[in-house]
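Much of the work behind modern protein science is quiet bookkeeping, done one molecule at a time. The protein below has been through that process, and both of its lines are reproduced in full.
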Amino acid sequence: MMNKRMILLFLLMLSVSVLLYSQEVIEEIVAIVNDEIITLSQVKEQDEVLRLMLRAQYQGEEFQKQYALRRRGLLDEMITQRLLLQEAKKQDLNIDEQMKLYIENIKKENNIDSDAELIRLMREQGTDFEEWKKMLRENIMKEGIIVTEVNRNIVLDDSEIVSYYKLHPEEFIEPPEYKLKAIYLSAELIGEEEIEAKKREIDSKIASGEDLAALASEYSDGPEKESQGDLGTFKKGELEKTLEQAVEKLKVGEMTPWLKIRNGWYLLKLEEKKEERLKPFEEARKEMEQKLFTEKYQKKFVEFLKRLKEKSYIKILKPNPLDFS
């Protein structure tokens, strides 16, 4: 089942496709896939869908990188999607229940009470509900044929999982974990002399037995002021290097000296520590199953797609259609 973020991206993708589908365009055949054609206008439509979908996920240079990468393989991806849909129709897959579940989940995740409200919201966005539902049906059918021809043919043997665990123990080592309390003094809020005075005052109170949590509530300039000094729990590699190196030397209950970072000073106390450990087999099992399943899925999907292409008629008339548009 899709999570909320993916549902919203899915709605965006389908809505843009429906909107572009209705625009009047000059047709030019780019490829032939069995008894269907892919036109230049359809490629342009999918290019715009791709651009908007990636824009919702990435920004700046990363967006440009992802867009350029995905755009190069757009026609091949369209051919693949056309082949999957044709095969699903050929096998006459029944996806009525999946359709119902998808739509109900979309309504639930977006706090939509009824089909009528969903239709109204789509109409306000300029999207025709029936056309949108048709495209949704096609997407579910493509997912269905992959499940039928690929997923159901994947078998994970217990011996494979055990062997993987023995051969790759480094993948299941959990790093040390530190739970910390802290006082933070910001160099941006007060001057150096005032900071030094506060540090001496805090050190004196700690030496006399005062609680770090109470002192954090009184002195800290960061969110620790509200959390009574609780900084959080961090795994090795998550803390700033200066802080981590100091924390690694502590025993539970001990404190670091004042540590200078870019914008101020930290005083840290180690509340709890979990040592590095190797996850037990059963705890790591799901992770291994997912990894092995993904590896087999990728291999079997490539094999299935190769068979599908071999038995199909595919003629590409414009290999790089967007280069000339």
User: Anything to note?
Assistant: Confidence is low (pLDDT under 50) at residues 1-9, 16-25. The longest helix spans residues 281-310.
